[in-house]
Amino acid sequence: MTLEFLLDYGLFLAKIATIVVAIIAIIVIAKGVSGRGAGAKGELEIVDLTEKHKQTVEQLEHHLHDDAFIKARDKAEKKSEKEQAKSREKEIKKAAKEGDLDSKREPHLFVLDFNGSIDAKEVASLREEVTAILAVAREGDEVLLRLETGGGMVHGYGLASSQLDRIKSAGLPLTIAVDKVAASGGYMMACIADKIVSAPFAIVGSIGVIAQLPNFNKLLKKHDIEFEQLTAGEYKRTLTMFGENSDKAREKFKQELEETHGLFKDFIRDHRPDLDLDKVATGEHWFGTQAKELGLVDEISTSDDLVVAACKDKTVLSIRYVQKKKLTDKLAGSAGEAADSVLMKLISRGQRPIV
User: Fold this and answer.
1) What is the C-alpha separation between 172 and 230, in angstroms, rounded?
2) DSSP of 37-106
3) Is the pLDDT of residue 234 over 80?
4) Residue 21's pLDDT band (boundaries 50, 70, 90)?
5) How far apart are the first and last CA of the chain?
6) What is the three-class DSSP state of 355?
7) Mean pLDDT in the chain?
8) Rounded CA gap, 351 and 337, in Å?
9) Residues 103-157: pLDDT tens digits?
């Protein structure tokens, strides 16, 4: 009986091993396939929000009016559109002959979305979107960024702000709409705009810097575990998760936080010089209506109101750069990568301030 059990158990383990090897082989092959196609990282998705809004209105109106009314209205609209098209065609031909074709180009509102994470990895897509817009934008065009983030790593949000500054440098009016939250690094991005629009209860502000990490030194000592860390340079590493932190290291790290906060305030002062920084750069946050009173935002509204208003006289286009998902992620899942990412973020936060 024991021998039969061992044979069955051995056969079971062999089956499991075969399955594991097969899965590993599939992942290796998938990595090879995705690696060969690494050149095509992503693509732009463009949605005509003006047309989408028009379709929504038409759909609702079919439930508000009878068929006779709809038929008569559609006939009148088609006649009007036909006359407008003929008139516009003449204007364009005339402008082309005079070498002034750009003056007859319809204005556009380019709509971007930035839903930021701690490390601001979304900046990879933002830079592609900005580059695409700058390649086609002309005088009369504008950009609207719908921003939602509570901030994160300084270098990530610094780069995101630089991408928005490219829009300003190109002479395109930039509006940033905050429907939910633009705090800390999010406000760093928002202050680039010509106009900041906030929903009444959106969270705005938090102009401060934070860094935090656990320290396991006492736990390691309790279990007789030694931790060694070798550095060259007195301040290559100040605070650590596993070693014993000194008062000198804490003081140096606090000094670095204060310096980062100073740079943060200088950045905001350059873009919104009328702000009373002593009053708003305390790390506190405010709701939209309060933020307007303090001068942190310029108008109380929502991104929906801005888009609908623009649809009346502009072609409103949503621009989104979508990165293609790797085949390995689809097959193996991203749980392991997520765990690694969380660990790396936990470690890096000890030395990288969060805004």
Assistant:
1) 50
2) TTT--EEEEEEEHHHHHHHHHHHHHHHHS-HHHHHHHHHHHHHHHHHHHHHHHHHHHHHHHTT-GGGGSP
3) no
4) low
5) 66
6) coil
7) 82
8) 22
9) 557 899 999 999 999 989 999 999 999 999 999 999 899 999 999 999 999 999 9
> pLDDT-derived band of residue 343, with 50, 70 and 90 as boundaries?
very low
Least confident of 25-39, 86-100, 172-186, 246-260: 25-39
pLDDT for residue 32 is more than 70 = no
Strand pairing report for 285-287 and 203-205: antiparallel
Residue 194 Cα distances to 31, 197, 298, angstroms: 44, 10, 9
C-beta separation of 173 from 197 below 8 A: no
Name the one residue in this structure whose structure tokens are 């000198």. Answer: 248
Count the residues in the chain: 355
Count, in order, helices (H) and strands (E) of the chain. 13, 9
CB 300 within 8 A of CB 289: yes
Question: What is the rounded distance in angstroms from the CA atom of residue 141 to the CA atom of residue 174?
Answer: 10
% of the chain residues with pLDDT over 70:
74
Distance, C-alpha 279 to centroid of its chain? 28
Torsion of CA 348, 337, 214, 233, to 10 degrees: -30
DSSP string for 259-295: HHHHHHHHHHHHH-TTS-HHHH-SS-EEEHHHHHHHT
- pLDDT (average), residues 92-104: 61
Cα dist from 49 to 56, 63, 106, 143, 271, whole Å: 10, 22, 15, 14, 30
Strands 174-183 and 195-198: parallel
Task: Dig out the tokens for 14 from the structure.
Answer: 């062999």
R_g over Cα of the chain: 28
* Catalytically annotated residues: 184, 236
Report whether pLDDT(249) > 60: yes
* Consecutive H or E run containing 222: helix 217-222
Residue written as tokens 């732009």? Answer: 44
For residue 94, name the pLDDT band (cuts at 50, 70, 90).
low
The DSSP output letter for 153 is: B
Crossing angle of helices 154-169 and 123-136, in 10° steps, is 10
